């Protein structure tokens, strides 16, 4: 099941422009690639975009954008529905509880994925609407992971050793780390670390590490033209056979089928572009579906 994309766009607005107050009938995710003085108001809260960020707006929420008066502001956006997606998997409903404004972490795949989505929308290759849905799902997964990690880091009830373990895990998904090595940096025994982790998150650290490695593998299968063996190693699996077994068990299909179904040359061969030398015209919006 994929989110249904309504429209995508990449815009540069004049300094001081005000958009709103307005209420949307669908979900909106907006990527601001650079820090600026734009503010976003929602429920008497004021959010300042002083870092590259993602802004998430739900249907029926009144909000206003006050764009930076000091210069033009570029932003990329997507409007979509995901009710069927949430109905098919209730775990996606947790996204609705994530922060409205999420600063992007270093190394985030969001810039590349947004660029891919806009390129597909303008070139409109075979099955382009479905492919845009695939890329948007990857963006939402990346956003969800970043929001989860941000909450792990900021939640006052999570012990500092657990926070350190999560950060250590996230930064080394491409390495063959073990739960024992992660437990070591907490200063706890493996057994005590596992019990504390499970009590806080409801799953074992082994399962959490495996799920994050599989998500990394999904992104690599879509964005890189690598062999499955290399994807396995770059996702922290020391054995291609074990990776293939775990991927099929958790995703219901072999990694090769996942790539054939969801990846294509547009996704695998695009890359981030400096400045505004983009593979699609700026300041255009593409209608994808009703």
From TrEMBL:
Keywords for the protein's UniProt record, in alphabetical order: DNA-binding, Transcription, Transcription regulation
Residues of the HTH araC/xylS-type domain: 163-261
Superkingdom classification of source: Bacteria
Any Pfam family matching the protein: HTH_18
Keyword Kinase: no
SMART domains in UniProt: HTH_ARAC (SM00342)
InterPro entries tied to this protein: AraC-bd, Homeodomain-like_sf, HTH-like, HTH_AraC, HTH_AraC-typ_CS
PROSITE patterns: HTH_ARAC_FAMILY_1, HTH_ARAC_FAMILY_2
Gene Ontology MF terms: DNA-binding transcription factor activity; sequence-specific DNA binding
Protein name as it appears in the record: HTH araC/xylS-type domain-containing protein
């Amino acid at each position: 099941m994929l989110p249904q994309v309504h429209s995508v766009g990449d815009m540069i607005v004049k300094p001081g422009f005000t958009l709103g107050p307005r209420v949307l009938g669908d979900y909106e995710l907006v990527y601001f690639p650079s820090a600026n003085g734009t503010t976003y108001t929602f429920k008497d809260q004021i959010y300042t975009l002083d870092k590259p960020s993602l802004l998430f707006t739900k249907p029926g929420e009144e909000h206003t954008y006050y764009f930076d008066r000091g210069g033009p502001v570029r932003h990329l956006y997507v409007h979509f529905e995901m009710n069927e997606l949430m109905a098919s998997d209730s775990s996606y409903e947790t996204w609705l509880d994530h922060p409205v404004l999420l600063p992007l972490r270093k190394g985030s795949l969001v810039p590349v994925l947004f660029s891919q989505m806009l390129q597909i929308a303008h070139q409109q290759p075979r099955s382009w609407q479905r492919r845009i849905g695939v890329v948007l799902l990857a963006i939402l997964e990346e956003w969800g992971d970043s929001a989860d990690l941000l909450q792990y880091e900021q939640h006052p009830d999570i012990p500092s050793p657990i926070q350190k373990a999560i950060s250590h895990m996230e930064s080394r998904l491409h390495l063959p780390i073990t739960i024992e090595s992660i437990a070591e940096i907490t200063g706890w025994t493996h057994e005590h670390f596992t019990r504390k982790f499970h009590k806080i998150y409801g799953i074992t650290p082994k399962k959490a590490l495996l799920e994050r490695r599989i998500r990394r593998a999904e992104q690599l299968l879509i964005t890189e033209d690598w062999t499955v063996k290399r994807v396995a190693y770059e996702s922290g699996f020391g054995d291609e056979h074990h990776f293939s077994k775990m991927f099929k068990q958790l995703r219901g299909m072999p990694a090769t089928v996942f790539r054939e179904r969801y990846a294509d040359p547009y996704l695998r061969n695009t890359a981030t572009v400096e400045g505004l030398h983009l593979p699609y015209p700026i300041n255009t919006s593409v209608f994808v579906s009703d």
